[in-house]
């Protein structure tokens, strides 16, 4: 296994770092080692966007730019990529970038603390969308917080930026950048050792499997949107890290006639088109669970393996009957996802085993799927309750029901009593009412800062009724009692 250094493109040149602490964040490296202070620290948890930087990667030969949060991104993850920061946007002879000039002309900055983050988010959009509309711009900057300017002039800048130039200096040197990235592409595992810690970045799944067996207590790192907080907020030392993001094919989303297979290292941004195309409610759920920066880094695989009771992807996958591909060495087993979560933060993973991929069945006739998220803040907030419902109806009767919730128990969990109350009965308001009452047999939710136990139970019942009212014919729902609107429901 080759020991080595982190190599990436920075400022148009290859940068090589040796002896870097694997737990060091890109934000701290920029500010403390490079004195690139345009990248700010606001929250150190990926919420405010002040630390936004852009990563460039070759994807099927094309250069792709994506915005990410530097505060929860570890430096070794830069290996093989291009890092772009706000200081890099300066053009020849000091000219402002079109995004920067648009912000100046629309008065999109006051104190300026958040401005570099907005610039970088819009810079990535500049390179990904030649004519973004207001909705796209709103989504792009939803992960950037501004406390004094207000968002209207910043949105105006996003709408106007293309008028200041269709191409920038990065477009002009695309071929040169691609050549540099090709020159540092790895063909074998990267191994780093510094500050008493170790970091491995395999490029094949065979090498990954061997590493996990050899280091069963290692922290498996994908997007780092949760693991990063262990360092920045909990001040934990992660002594051994194994990075999944460089494993060939593990970030792929493959589609067949029967299923969608999502690699465990596939970012939400890569999975949203395929999964959301099959199940539109999932697309909206993914959009709401995190900002563009979080979706560009975070993975569905990490969300599942983390085994949080409030992980938003799990209830929907459980309701759909998804399965997980678990690998240990050369052996792969397939496990229904509802058998994966054993207890609070505990899973069915064996020592030396890891999650390799998620298999999601495709939609079929007569099968209705809906998922809803209720939280205090509409976007980018942790769920109080996340409900998912998959009901197969034939001849007006429920042939099969799979219902799952997050935020209601120590794990994401199926509502088996509720399902039993539905199956075999008419798809009617009366059947649904009985199933709503059966939820009390499935869950004993707790009260915490996000919601009381009573609130959670009421929401869980009402979301089931909402699913029925959105699925059944209007005449069938005319007599259904309206849900108690204790909070504005939303997908």
Give the SSE layout:
Layout (H helix, E strand, L loop, with lengths): L5 E5 L2 E5 L8 H8 L18 E8 L2 E8 L12 E3 L13 H8 L9 H14 L5 H7 L11 H9 L8 H4 L1 H10 L6 E5 L2 E5 L3 H10 L4 E3 L5 H6 L7 E4 L9 E3 L3 E5 L4 H11 L1 H10 L2 H6 L2 H6 L7 H8 L2 E6 L2 E6 L4 E3 L2 E2 L6 E8 L5 E8 L10 E10 L2 E10 L6 E2 L1 H7 L6 H14 L10 H19 L2 H4 L14
Parallel strand pairs: 1-5, 7-9, 8-9
Antiparallel strand pairs: 1-2, 3-4, 3-5, 6-7, 10-11, 11-16, 12-13, 12-16, 14-15, 17-18, 18-19, 19-20
Structure description:
The chain is an alpha+beta fold and 491 residues long. Among the domains are: 6-87 and 175-243, Beta-grasp domain (Ubiquitin-like (UB roll)), CATH 3.10.20; 92-167, DNA polymerase, domain 1 (Orthogonal Bundle), CATH 1.10.150; 367-477, CO dehydrogenase flavoprotein, C-terminal domain (Enolase-like, domain 1), CATH 3.30.390.50. It contains 18 helices and 20 strands. The protein has helices at 26-33, 98-105, 115-128, 134-140, 152-160, 169-172, 174-183, 205-214, 227-232, 268-278, 280-289, 292-297, 300-305, 313-320, 416-422, 429-442, 453-471, 474-477, and strands at 6-10, 13-17, 52-59, 62-69, 82-84, 190-194, 197-201, 219-221, 240-243, 253-255, 259-263, 323-328, 331-336, 341-343, 346-347, 354-361, 367-374, 385-394, 397-406, 413-414. The strands form 5 sheets. Strands 2-1-5-3-4 form a 5-stranded mixed sheet. α10 (268-278) packs antiparallel against α11 (280-289), α15 runs antiparallel to α16 and α16 packs antiparallel against α17 (453-471). It is globular and about 75 Å long.
CATH topology of the domain at 6-87 and 175-243: Ubiquitin-like (UB roll)
Radius of gyration: 24 Å
As a percent range, the share of strand residues is 15-25%
User: How far do the termini sit from each other?
Assistant: 47 Å
Strand order of the largest sheet: 2-1-5-3-4
Oligomer: single chain
Largest sheet: 5 strands, mixed
Number of helices: 18
Shape: globular
Mean pLDDT: 94
CATH superfamily of the domain at 6-87 and 175-243: Beta-grasp domain
Q: Structural class of the secondary structure composition?
A: alpha+beta
CATH 2nd-level architecture of the domain at 6-87 and 175-243: Roll
Uncertain spans: 483-491
Supply the CATH class of the domain at 6-87 and 175-243. Alpha Beta
């Amino acid at each position: 296994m080759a020991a080595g250094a982190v190599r990436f493109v920075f400022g148009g040149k290859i940068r090589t770092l040796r002896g870097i602490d694997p737990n060091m964040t890109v934000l701290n490296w920029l500010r403390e080692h490079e004195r690139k202070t345009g990248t700010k620290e606001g929250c150190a948890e990926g919420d405010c966007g002040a630390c936004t930087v852009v990563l460039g990667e070759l994807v099927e030969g094309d250069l792709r730019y994506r915005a990410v949060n530097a505060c929860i991104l570890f430096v070794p993850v830069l290996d093989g990529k291009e890092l772009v920061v706000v200081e890099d946007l300066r053009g020849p002879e000091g000219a402002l970038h079109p995004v920067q000039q648009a912000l100046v002309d629309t008065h999109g900055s006051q104190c300026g603390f958040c401005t570099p983050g907005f610039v970088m988010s819009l810079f990535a959009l500049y390179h990904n969308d030649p004519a973004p509309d207001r909705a796209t711009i709103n989504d792009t900057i939803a992960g950037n917080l501004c406390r004094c300017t207000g968002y209207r002039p910043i949105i105006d800048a996003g709408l106007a930026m293309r008028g200041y130039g269709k191409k920038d200096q990065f477009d002009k040197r695309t071929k040169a950048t691609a050549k540099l990235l090709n020159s540092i592409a790895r063909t074998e595992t990267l191994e780093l050792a510094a500050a008493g810690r170790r970091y491995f970045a395999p490029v094949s799944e065979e090498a990954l499997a061997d590493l996990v067996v050899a280091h069963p207590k290692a922290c498996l790192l994908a997007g780092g949107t949760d693991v990063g907080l262990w360092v920045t907020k909990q001040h934990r030392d992660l002594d051994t890290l194994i990075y999944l993001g460089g494993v060939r094919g593990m970030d792929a989303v493959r589609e067949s006639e029967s299923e969608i297979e999502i690699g465990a290292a596939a970012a939400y941004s890569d999975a949203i088109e395929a999964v959301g195309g099959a199940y539109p409610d999932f697309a909206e759920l993914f959009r709401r669970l995190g900002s563009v920066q979080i979706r560009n880094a975070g993975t569905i695989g990490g969300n599942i393996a983390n085994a949080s009771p409030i992980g938003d992807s799990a209830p929907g996958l459980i309701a759909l009957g998804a399965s997980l591909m678990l690998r240990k060495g050369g052996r792969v087993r397939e496990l229904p996802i509802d058998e994966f979560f054993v207890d609070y933060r505990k899973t069915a993973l064996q020592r030396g085993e890891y999650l390799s991929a998620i298999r999601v069945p495709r939609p079929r006739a007569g099968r209705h799927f809906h998922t809803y998220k209720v939280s205090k803040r509409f976007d980018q907030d942790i769920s109080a309750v996340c409900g998912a419902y998959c009901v197969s109806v034939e001849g007006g009767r429920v042939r099969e029901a799979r219902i799952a919730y997050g935020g209601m128990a120590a794990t994401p969990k199926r509502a088996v009593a509720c399902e039993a109350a539905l199956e075999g009965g008419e798809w009617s308001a009366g059947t649904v009412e009985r199933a709503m009452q059966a939820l009390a047999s499935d869950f004993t939710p707790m009260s915490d800062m996000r919601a009381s136990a009573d609130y959670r139970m009421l929401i869980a019942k009402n979301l089931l009724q909402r699913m029925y009212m959105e699925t059944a014919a209007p005449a069938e729902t005319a007599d259904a009692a309206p849900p108690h609107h204790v909070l504005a429901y939303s997908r």
